[in-house]
Amino acid sequence: MFNILEAPFMIEMIRTVTNMYAHGWDERNGGNVSLLLEEEKIKDYVNTDAVIRTIDIPFDATALIGKYFLVTGTGKYFKNVQYDPEKNMGLFRIGKDGHTAELLWGYNDGGRFTSELPAHLMSHITRLSVDPDNHVVMHCHPTNLLAMTYVHDLDEKKFTHTLWEFSTECIVVFPDGVNVLPWMLCGTNEIGEATAKKMETARLVVWAAHGIYGAGKDLDETFGLIETAEKAAEVYMKCAALPKVNTIKDSELKELADFFKVTPRQGYLDI
């Protein structure tokens, strides 16, 4: 077996969560990331027949039986991941009963996966049905997107349009828009189900007064998706109390979409 800490997927995961912390998106033990991995990518780094222990999953994950996930741990600080990955993350397989995680590596202090696992795995199930190449679900607390939920209408069309309008790149990066949930109790199956439902039509789901979920093909894409939305929210928050003199018109947003060959969410542009 090769050293799992030298595996490309592990190096990228550590770099990503470290960068998320550096951006100020994941204070204390806030935030969580799950990475879906093919057996081919992990078989040289872990013995898939050597289950360390099993951990109960509090919902039905039957749709993911046999799939492997690298997931940040509950109560763990992203700032510590780079120094002790094996304590702060875990690699597990969804067991044959669909209700257990078979731990193959990590959580070596007796810990377990993030309390937000319902939202992660349910979102993986949804996104895989939309895009079989989806491998990442990422949750964090970007400051300006969070602030925006306190001062902006939570209507999804209006919220999306503001982000598109406040940064040229937004309609290109997330033409599918942003979906929004009102405040809900976190860590529950209910918010997991609601998030997964929203993931049917968009890769970004804002949790009002809490944070955001993003989904994508890889860690870079998902990080960049959130990063782009957060930049637009930052510009909006700096301008929100000032008279708006200029904007990106809907006709110009359409021009952007046509040039970059993306399809804006239907009905979100008034043209």
TrEMBL record:
Binds 1 zinc ion per subunit. Pathway: Carbohydrate degradation; L-rhamnose degradation; glycerone phosphate from L-rhamnose: step 3/3. GO terms for molecular function: metal ion binding; rhamnulose-1-phosphate aldolase activity. InterPro entries: Aldolase_class_II_sugar_metab, Aldolase_II/adducin_N, Aldolase_II/adducin_N_sf, Rhamnulose-1-P_Aldolase. Belongs to the aldolase class II family. RhaD subfamily. This is Rhamnulose-1-phosphate aldolase. Pfam families: Aldolase_II (PF00596). GO terms for biological process: pentose catabolic process; rhamnose catabolic process. It catalyses: L-rhamnulose 1-phosphate = (S)-lactaldehyde + dihydroxyacetone phosphate. It comes from the Bacteria. NCBIfam families: PRK03634.1 (NF002963), rhamnu_1P_ald (TIGR02624). It comes from Butyrivibrio fibrisolvens. Residues 11-237 form the Class II aldolase/adducin N-terminal domain. Keywords: Cytoplasm, Lyase, Metal-binding, Rhamnose metabolism, Zinc. PANTHER family: 3-OXO-TETRONATE 4-PHOSPHATE DECARBOXYLASE-RELATED, FUCULOSE PHOSPHATE ALDOLASE. Zn(2+) binds at H139, H141, H210.
